[in-house]
Amino acid sequence: MNLILLGPPGAGKGTQAKILEQAHGFKQLSTGDMLRAAISAGSETGVKAKAIMDRGDLVSDDVILGIVAERMDKPDVSQGVVFDGFPRTPAQAESLDKMLKARGGKLDGVIEMKVDDEALVKRITGRFTCAKCGKGYHDDFAKPKKVGICDVCGSTEFTRRPDDNEKTVRDRLQVYNKQTAPLVEYYRGQGNLHVIDGMADIGQVTAAIETVLAQLKA
Ligand code: ADP
Ligand code: ADP
Ligand code: ZN
Description:
This protein has helices at residues 13-24, 31-41, 44-54, 61-72, 90-102, 117-125, 166-180, 182-190, 202-217; strands at residues 3-6, 27-30, 81-84, 109-114, 127-130, 136-138, 158-159, 193-197. By secondary structure, the protein is an alpha/beta fold. Strands 2-3-1-4-8 form a 5-stranded parallel beta sheet. The longest helix is centred in the last third of the chain and has 16 residues, at 202-217.
């Protein structure tokens, strides 16, 4: 099954994509994570993307579509993909439809996660991630069970993203509303849109997604 988690920065896409990966064997495809890996590796793509990401703008469709197409050609995506942070523009959405079709697949559903802007700012400014395994946490809403130790891998190193500050988040929200929000109507028109309340607790959001998955399978 191929799913898109659609929602503004901080909506909980990464959190839920990782849960879906564990529960169903889908692969999370996060273009943000792929770009951050390119930055860490010091590749040409990474160097170009960094300045754009730091100010909260979108990386060009060409670059994004290139890295997604390459990822979709790996064999491990055959069980299905959870797209997280992609597509973000109408051009990306149309290219994804073509990309899936060319590989003999299709999009099964788009889950829009709705969250209030002020809650998003709180979520983003409190976000941190295990430096070793990538598990996501929050200062108030999703703390490790033992302070300073990753629940999953035991690491004591965590990272915070340079773009996860209040100023950039507000810019990213504007970019979302202008460039990405139109995808809601695009997918509604396709009959693929499922809207859920992203304001609920992490477990309740997971349950709402599972209800959509059950509908899609039926
Ligand atoms: P996105 O990938 O959409 O940007 P994340 O999954 O990284 O969002 O979540 C942003 C932050 O909010 C993280 O720190 C995460 O732990 C926390 N978070 C995720 N879902 C919820 C939720 N339902 N309620 C409260 N906090 C949440
Ligand atoms: P968030 O978790 O806050 O939604 P992401 O990790 O998805 O953020 O994205 C971080 C940054 O990476 C974005 O602000 C943007 O600069 C860039 N980016 C990620 N995915 C895309 C995409 N599909 N198209 C354009 N830019 C992207
Ligand atoms: Zn860890």
